[in-house]
Amino acid sequence: MKSWTSFDKFVAFSVVLLLLYSIALLVNAHLAGENIAHWVWGRHQNQFSWYSRPLFLIPACYYAYRRKLWLIVGFMALLLCSLFWFAAPENVPEHVSGYLEWEKQLFFSNNSIVPLISLLVAVVLFLIGLFSAIWYRSYWLGLVLINIGTLAKIVISVALGNEFGTSAVIPSLSSLAIINFVAFMAWRLFNAKQES
Q: How do the domains of the chain map onto residue ranges?
């Protein structure tokens, strides 16, 4: 279980390449005189990043199952970097800009850092719980955690984000549907192997 296959090495090489690409994007933006925080925020408005980011949990969970800590860390770094992979959209839909403005006000423009610290702690605890569940072979617990975590994000967004909170619903539910489908297929494959 601990050995590295050729595929693992290929995946690790790909992760490193994507991280280098991310660093190159940041360096290029800096050399172009961009304010990095504004540059990242502008690119974060591209909804491709909203849809793609949660999908990094799938390979990270696979490597939690394989107990490859560095590949889990690598995929979580890619999840973070994917915030700025896609170009800033020329026209940002009002519901997207409104939702992101609500996020900015809540987490970055607030006089208190409590909301931001609470978010970071909640995300870290969620990820530790998810990967630990899979690492220690509690697959159903991992699946329950990812479903509860996503649904909690939707509820908080809708409850606190006013009319813009619904912007997070479709990206979150579509990602959750893909993750649950992959989990279902993995379960069927596992059962088929057990029966043969």
A: 1-86, 93-196
